[in-house]
């Protein structure tokens, strides 16, 4: 749907071996951001690489077990070797395990779908979700999806807690990527939402990606005080109206504060 936003390490890709690594990383991120997998044509469009280059890189990655092709759909997906590597690295980044109880409590208490997102450069990445019991759900967010900061409630919650100069830099750098997620993601609409986050503590996405699909989010701070993560809830608009919105906001803030303390924030 959109081209990837520049993440840490994407500038100055270099040539030769360094360029190959950069391009392979682009492909892995693009595949991770597509829940049902990706085609060669889709990956070429998302990364700006030619189809022959994409095919050549996928062949090499598949030989190492880093990607694989679905026998059912033919789409490319992340491979088993990435799972192994991720499991080894997980103990250094225990955020999913720490956040799991908060996600369960939010989903059980509200009936909505609860999500954990992390900041990566100019983006947020959805890391985990727990489905709520309410039968009608919003399917905008899913694990692996990358969104520009300022898009969706998690990105708004994180962006609002950055220094003002950094907010302006982010808004400028992500203008093109935000536009891919709908015409409402302009600074004139985003800045008032950031003011509300600072006033109320929670971010509200009033159907800016998909009409009728709302979200609320609260920032989670790491030991340095940086807004490194966000907890969010998504659902249909009527479930986010009036007093219920206040209830959802209090639940999000309580869990965000709890998780921030577990990460060492005081």
TrEMBL record:
GO terms for molecular function: DNA binding; DNA-binding transcription factor activity. Residues 81-265 form the IclR-ED domain. Keywords: DNA-binding, Transcription, Transcription regulation. Gene3D superfamilies: 3.30.450.40, Winged helix-like DNA-binding domain superfamily/Winged helix DNA-binding domain. The keyword Transcription applies. Residues 18-80 form the HTH iclR-type domain. Signal peptide: none annotated. It holds the Pfam family HTH_IclR. GO terms for biological process: negative regulation of DNA-templated transcription. This is IclR family transcriptional regulator. It comes from Kocuria flava.
């Amino acid at each position: 749907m959109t081209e990837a936003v520049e993440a840490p390490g994407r500038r100055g890709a270099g040539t030769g071996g360094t360029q190959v690594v950069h391009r392979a990383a682009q492909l892995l991120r693009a595949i991770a951001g597509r829940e049902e997998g990706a085609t060669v044509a889709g990956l070429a469009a998302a990364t700006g690489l030619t189809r022959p280059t994409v095919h050549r890189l996928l062949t090499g990655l598949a030989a190492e077990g880093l990607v694989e092709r679905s026998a059912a759909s033919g789409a490319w997906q992340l491979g088993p070797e990435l799972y192994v590597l991720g499991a080894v690295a997980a103990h250094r980044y225990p955020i999913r395990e720490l956040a799991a109880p908060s996600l369960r409590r939010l989903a059980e208490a509200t009936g909505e779908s609860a999500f954990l997102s992390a900041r990566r450069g100019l983006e947020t990445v959805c890391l985990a979700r727990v489905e709520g019991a309410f039968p009608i759900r919003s399917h905008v967010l899913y694990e692996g999806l990358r969104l520009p900061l300022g898009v969706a409630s998690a990105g708004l919650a994180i962006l609002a807690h950055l220094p003002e100069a950094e907010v302006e830099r982010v808004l400028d750098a992500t203008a093109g990527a935000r536009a891919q997620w709908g015409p409402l993601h302009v600074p004139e609409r985003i800045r008032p939402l950031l003011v509300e986050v600072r006033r109320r503590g929670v971010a509200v996405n009033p159907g800016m990606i998909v009409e009728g699909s709302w979200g609320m989010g609260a920032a989670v701070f790491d030991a340095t005080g940086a807004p490194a993560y966000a907890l969010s809830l998504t659902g249909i608009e009527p479930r986010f109206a009036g007093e219920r919105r206040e209830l959802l906001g209090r639940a999000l803030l309580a869990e965000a504060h709890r998780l921030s303390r577990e990460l060492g924030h005081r």
